[in-house]
Amino acid sequence: MSEHVTPESEVLCTRDGRVGHLSLNRPRAINALTHTMVNLLQSALDEWADDDSVQTILLTGSGERGLCAGGDIVSLYQDALSGDGREAARFWADEYRLNAAINSYPKPYVALMDGVVLGGGVGVSAHASHRIVTERSKIGMPETAIGFVPDVGGTWLLSHTPGELGTYLALTAGMVGAGDAIALGLADTFVPSSRIPELIALLATTTADEAIAAVCALAPEAPLLAERDWIDAAFAGDSMAQILDRLKNSPLGAARDTFERIASKSPTALAATLDSLRRVVHLDSLEAALRQEYRVTLRAFLTPDFAEGVRAQVIDKDRTPHWIPATLDEVDPAAVTAFFEPLDDAELDLPDRSPRAAATTS
């Protein structure tokens, strides 16, 4: 592969010694993923998988704000308003295939989850073999805030966190820092941001494990993990109404504040998210989770709440979305169940893969 280093490239693909370096390059948008970026990442990974001179993959983000703020929801919003959803479906299909390819990649894949890492940014990093966080990391799945549902394998990741912490994060659209990201299984190792240049230099000359070991440090505290007792009690079960009732009537101020955060979200998105998390625990692979997410994503995209949520949070920024339906009591359980029904000929074409062979050997 020839190196792509022109400033206008949305992904910079370069080589330095033994490392193939992928840098997301839309810093003004905090490197939000476009369809072009997804395809460039997949192409580079496909080529480097068979290149013996590339021993390690490194993923970083351009600019100072973060690795990736998620998918390019403005483009998806425009498709929701004027299109039939086909372009959105193509984008998600390719994005989810990329997420699965990262998870099963045959070489060490080092993701620098520095700064903001949200939504689609989690998809290209948290499935990696080596996941690095810094004191600047802010990691989350904010989909319910825009009337949507966690995807890119997010339901798989959040369902494997300790207790109900993943349910809490999904329903609140919350973010965690480095300590909690490691404690919840969303990341592996803490590296101070001041040592990132040293890490990048080491990756060019030594194995991923050796390079990371040379610069890592003790992870910060995990404040969300410390709240697990009341979160587990409040978020247990399959009833969204019961969860909200527990939070609203809790003697704990943190629980009542959480009620207020969740109550402002799309009722349909909340119901579909909780159902997604409860169903995914019965699946046996990330690939199966992605197939389920694809069904739910396409159905959620067609509801009024996605376009309305993006309008309120991103386009007009008035922060006053008008959800349809407006309350949980009005959400038809059958309509949510229909989100999970097979797509017939439109199912996500995603073969099951063997677990990565090189992740632990570097």
Give a short summary of the structure.
The protein is of the alpha/beta class and 362 residues long. 44% of the residues lie in helices and 11% in strands. It contains 16 helices and ten strands.
Write a structural description:
By secondary structure, the chain is α/β, with parallel strands linked by helices. It has a single domain (11-346), classed as Alpha-Beta Complex (2-enoyl-CoA Hydratase, Chain A, domain 1), CATH 3.90.226.10. Helices cover 44% and strands 11% of the residues. The radius of gyration is 20 Å and the shape is globular. 52% of the residues are buried.
Features of the shown structure:
single chain; 362 residues; alpha/beta; 2-enoyl-CoA Hydratase, Chain A, domain 1; 6-stranded mixed β-sheet; 16 helices; 10 strands; 44% helix; 11% strand
Helix content: 40-55%
Largest sheet, spatial ordering of strands:
1-2-3-5-7-10
Could you say which overall geometry the principal axes of the C-alpha atoms support?
A: globular
Beta-strand proportion: 5-15%
Largest pleated sheet: 6 strands, mixed
Instruction: Sketch the topology as an H/E string, one letter per element.
Output: EEHEEHHEEHEEHHEHEHHHHHHHHH
Low-confidence stretches: 354-362
CATH superfamily label: 2-enoyl-CoA Hydratase, Chain A, domain 1
Number of helices: 16
Which structural class do you get from the secondary structure elements? alpha/beta
Q: What's the average pLDDT?
A: 94
Per the CATH scheme, the topology name is 2-enoyl-CoA Hydratase, Chain A, domain 1
Structural domain count: 1
Please tally the β strands and state the result: 10
CATH uppermost class: Alpha Beta
Radius of gyration based on Cα positions: 20 Å
